[in-house]
């Protein structure tokens, strides 16, 4: 089985995540995509992050009508920070007969070199890279990534020509805070939940 692992904070899940996961699954011939919400992301310490069990539940709701999508709470059960290399090692044991692919947006491409054990992670695992606005994947930017060429080439091979969906969780949170509508930027059930629970409306001004 060909399995995509889609890690992220999902604070909250939005249509960008869903469209990209669907597009990559179909283009790359994956059998399933497993969404893996992070428990305690090391690089997002200063943001308001909704409770992990709620982020998990919102993903569950958002993907419920797609038989190829699953959610896994592995990182939520992990004490301390979650690192992609550890998560991928875990899934490579759990699904030892699968071909695994870790899905990232192009924004991650330019910071992946600071992820834990980046070089060993990229050489051990496969990555699929989605297009993202403001993060063009061109030769110049690629050249500047401080990684050995063989690893950069490996990442390059994982680039997928996905549509550019200009939605981020930051944008969703900002719009809620500014009293703007998030209709159609997240699935309707997610919008209802966020509104009914006043999430992101007043969290001390952090994003
Ligand atoms: P934030 O704005 O809070 O940083 P985000 O919208 O980037 O959040 P994450 O949960 O951090 O969402 O992202 C998980 C993964 O999904 C990352 O690899 C990110 O690059 C990717 N991603 C998120 N939104 C998009 C999008 N619109 N298009 C392509 N990839 C995306």
Automatic annotation (TrEMBL):
Record flagged with keyword Iron-sulfur: no
GO molecular function: ATP binding; nicotinate-nucleotide adenylyltransferase activity
Catalytic reaction equation(s): nicotinate beta-D-ribonucleotide + ATP + H(+) = deamido-NAD(+) + diphosphate
Gene Ontology BP terms: NAD+ biosynthetic process
Keywords (A to Z) from UniProt: ATP-binding, NAD, Nucleotide-binding, Nucleotidyltransferase, Pyridine nucleotide biosynthesis, Transferase
Associated pathway: Cofactor biosynthesis; NAD(+) biosynthesis; deamido-NAD(+) from nicotinate D-ribonucleotide: step 1/1
Cytidyltransferase-like domain sequence ranges: 5-175
Enzyme nomenclature, EC number: 2.7.7.18
Enzyme class: transferase
Family classification: Belongs to the NadD family.
Function: Catalyzes the reversible adenylation of nicotinate mononucleotide (NaMN) to nicotinic acid adenine dinucleotide (NaAD).
NCBIfam families reported in the protein's UniProt record: cyt_tran_rel, nicotinate (nicotinamide) nucleotide adenylyltransferase, PRK00071.1-3
Protein name: Probable nicotinate-nucleotide adenylyltransferase
Organism lineage: Bacteria, Pseudomonadati, Candidatus Auribacterota, Candidatus Auribacteria, Candidatus Auribacterales
Gene (name only): nadD
